[in-house]
């Protein structure tokens, strides 16, 4: 597994990817072949049939996917124990690289997010970059696609307050698109078309991303050191989870990811992948080669590509730009959903995006490794329905045997070493092998943790980490059947032509109510009860073997509710369970973010806000109106937005009539699109501000009278 000494680029060792790919995937195929032969032998003993052929085929696919996952753990553990130079951070010394004069944009695309959290996260990143002394080379952009009128106004106010607080006008920019076409990829494309050529690189973040200043500087230095690299993806660590579900996911991410990602890097190397955020991208080739095509056919498979990141990496690689995974570069963070249902909603979007990749697989000119990345992403969601099909076919065979009275041992085992084994012992052997394949990476992750005393202490010690792995394994066992049913539903609805909408991701930890959980999980529970009854009637012994699968379905409602609770997450933390390094030894950026969000929680007015409060502030508050109008005026001076303003009808009699209707009848008399058209017209917003304060009360709607009285009473 050593690296070849040949030189390929500026002193970097040349990497023989072919051997690595062959060793990695042949190991998975060899293991799958051996265990599949054992399983085929078991089926042969009870008499072959068409249903057994289907069962064997499903087993081979499912076990191969598990074996690939296991090999990621095995090879990753080997790499971490014995080391390798095949990391972009180890190919050449980059730390002393001079990056003065290099321009980098850090972009935060957002969509109906918590504006306070977005800008406090940006504050933490900005201050961290400032501490490196390299702030001059970075500009920060919040790229809004928000469709909620109140959130739009709040974003503008938060931007202005942050820019003034940090004295960062001219360093922190805010832009909201008038039309949010092509979702996040279109948002980034719009930014690049207007500002991209000013920057050699851009770093794409998510709304909840936080990155350490040293990490951002290191990414720029790495790009400068390797001029043929087009993209470097970091591995974001999950942080700030409070619910039990969130903390379990966070723990698993921090403990298992180092081993798994090292294994992924072993075979991917400089033909890596892009996950859509917390990555640095070379601007010019991205603009030139990564314009996403529209897929043929109707939605959900045709049209706009939802999971754009995999495809953008593939397009970059097609043009011979390298894509690396900087898995050992710390200081990259993100947050995750805090409940099972919210996590499934995110999975729904990802499922459709990955299913679309079935059309991209056969695109002309893509590298074989890119097709492999796409294929693994597709099977990540097909595994659920394939597992369900496996269980149903097995149930059918078992029922049919009982119904016909066929013998369980019709012929001896083909394998001479199993000739004297009973069918039950033979099946148990296969089951044990499957469990070892699934559990081995977790065991190797614990061993890897024990090797590093300092890292081990950051997880609360080896004992607590071990109990955490046991708890996470129990939860995953119960969670897996729900994911199986969810993924099956997602795939079937896609095949039926049902597409997913674009909704903001819920990131807080309010907790799932019992009623909401019952509404979302009643199908899981019903399937578990009916299936369990069928198993019990068929064979009580078989029922007990199926208990882990059935329990996850039957207990779906309480599991979803209880794991969403913040109190249970805090209770686990007080016991020292599911600890992560960012909890026990939090970096300064995370400490700053948490403390400022806590201040907001303590000081913000908890009184429920009136509907259309953002609109009222944009019209009545002189400060907010000035911010809003100035941003609209600046955008109108940009020729690239002329067409969009024309589509909105800015400055036309129609929009002026809407403004008059807004004042005379109130905002509820306008539909959402009309209210947004009014809010996007800078001249009209100036007029509305003066008219709302100067117009006689009898010419204003009652809603405006109430809002004016409320604003007049403010300090």
Any idea what the radius of gyration is?
A: 28 Å
Whole-number mean pLDDT: 90
Tally of DSSP β-strands: 12
Q: Note the overall shape.
A: globular
Uncertain ranges:
1-8
Q: Give a short account of the largest sheet.
A: 7 strands, mixed
Structure description:
- This protein is of the alpha/beta class and 715 residues long.
- 63% of the residues lie in helices and 7% in strands.
- The protein is built from 29 helices and 12 strands.
- The strands form 3 sheets. Strands 5-4-3-6-10-8-11 form a 7-stranded mixed β-sheet, sandwiched between helices. A 3-stranded mixed β-sheet has the order 7-12-9. Strands 1-2 form a two-stranded antiparallel sheet.
- Helix 2 runs parallel beside helix 13, helix 11 (340-360) packs across helix 12 and helix 11 (340-360) packs across helix 15.
- It is globular, with a radius of gyration of 28 Å.
- Residues 1-8 have low confidence and may be disordered.
């Amino acid at each position: 597994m050593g690296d070849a000494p040949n030189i390929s680029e500026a002193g970097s060792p040349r990497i023989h990817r072919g051997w690595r790919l062959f060793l990695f995937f042949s190991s998975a195929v060899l293991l799958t072949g051996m265990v599949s032969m054992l399983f085929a032998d078991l089926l042969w003993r009870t008499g072959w049939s068409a249903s057994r052929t289907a069962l064997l085929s499903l087993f081979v696919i499912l076990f191969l996917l598990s074996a690939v996952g296991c090999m990621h753990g095995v090879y990753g553990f080997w790499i971490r124990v014995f080391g390798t130079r095949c990391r972009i951070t180890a190919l050449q010394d980059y730390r002393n690289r001079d990056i003065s004069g290099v321009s980098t944009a850090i972009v935060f695309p957002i969509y109906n997010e918590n504006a306070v959290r977005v800008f406090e996260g940006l504050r933490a990143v900005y201050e961290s970059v400032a501490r490196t002394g390299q702030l001059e080379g970075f500009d920060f952009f919040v790229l809004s696609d928000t469709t909620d009128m109140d959130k739009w106004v709040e974003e503008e106010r938060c931007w202005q307050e942050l820019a003034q607080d940090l004295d960062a006008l001219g360093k922190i920019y805010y832009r909201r698109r008038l039309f949010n076409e092509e979702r996040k990829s279109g948002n980034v494309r719009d930014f690049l078309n207007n500002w991209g050529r000013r920057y050699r690189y851009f770093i794409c973040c998510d709304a909840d991303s936080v990155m350490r200043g040293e990490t951002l500087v290191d990414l720029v230095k790495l790009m400068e050191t390797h001029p043929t690299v087009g993209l470097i993806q970091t591995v974001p660590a999950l942080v700030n989870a409070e619910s039990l579900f969130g903390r379990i996911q966070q723990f698993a991410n921090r403990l298992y990811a180092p081993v798994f990602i090292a294994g992924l890097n072993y075979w991917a190397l400089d033909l890596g992948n892009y996950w859509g955020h917390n990555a640095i991208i070379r601007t010019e080739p991205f603009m030139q080669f990564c314009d996403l095509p529209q897929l043929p056919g109707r939605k959900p498979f045709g049209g706009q590509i939802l999971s754009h990141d995999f495809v953008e990496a593939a397009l970059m690689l097609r043009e011979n730009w390298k894509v690396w995974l900087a898995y050992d570069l710390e200081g990259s963070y993100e947050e995750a959903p805090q409940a099972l249902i919210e996590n499934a909603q995110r999975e729904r979007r990802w499922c459709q995006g990955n299913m679309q990749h079935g059309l991209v697989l056969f695109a002309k000119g893509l590298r074989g490794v890119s097709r492999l990345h796409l294929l693994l992403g597709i099977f990540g969601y097909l595994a659920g329905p394939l597992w369900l099909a496996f269980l149903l076919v097995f149930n059918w065979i078992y029922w049919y045997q009982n119904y016909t009275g066929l013998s369980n041992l019709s012929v001896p085992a083909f394998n001479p070493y199993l000739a004297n084994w009973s069918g039950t012992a033979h099946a148990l052997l296969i089951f044990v092998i499957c469990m070892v394949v699934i559990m081995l990476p977790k065991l190797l992750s614990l061993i890897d943790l024990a090797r590093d005393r300092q890292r081990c202490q950051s997880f609360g010690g080896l004992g607590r980490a071990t109990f955490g792995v046991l708890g996470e394994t129990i939860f995953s066992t119960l969670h897996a059947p729900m994911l199986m049913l969810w993924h099956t539903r997602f795939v079937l609805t896609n095949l039926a032509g049902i597409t997913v909408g674009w909704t903001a991701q819920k990131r807080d930890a309010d907790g799932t109510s019992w009623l909401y959980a019952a509404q979302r999980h009643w199908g899981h529970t019903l399937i578990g009860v009916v299936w369990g009854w069928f198993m019990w009637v068929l064979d009580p012994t078989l029922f007990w073997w199926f208990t882990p699968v059935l329990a996850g379905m039957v207990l779906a409602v309480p599991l979803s509710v209880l794991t969403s609770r913040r109190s249970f997450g805090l209770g686990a933390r007080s016991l020292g369970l599911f600890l992560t390094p960012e909890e026990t030894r939090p970096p300064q950026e995370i400490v700053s973010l948490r403390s400022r969000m806590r201040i907001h929680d303590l000081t913000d007015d908890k009184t429920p806000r009136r509907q259309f409060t953002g609109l009222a502030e944009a019209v009545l508050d002189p400060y907010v109106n000035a911010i809003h109008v100035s941003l609209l005026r600046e955008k109108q001076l940009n020729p690239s937005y002329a067409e969009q303003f024309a589509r909105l009808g800015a400055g036309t009699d129609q929009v002026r009539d809407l403004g008059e209707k807004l004042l005379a009848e109130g905002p509820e008399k306008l539909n959402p699109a009309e209210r947004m058209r009014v809010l996007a017209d800078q001249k009209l917003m100036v007029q509305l501000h003066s008219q709302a304060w100067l117009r006689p009360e009898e010419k204003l709607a009652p809603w405006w009278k109430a809002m004016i009285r409320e604003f007049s009473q403010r300090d």
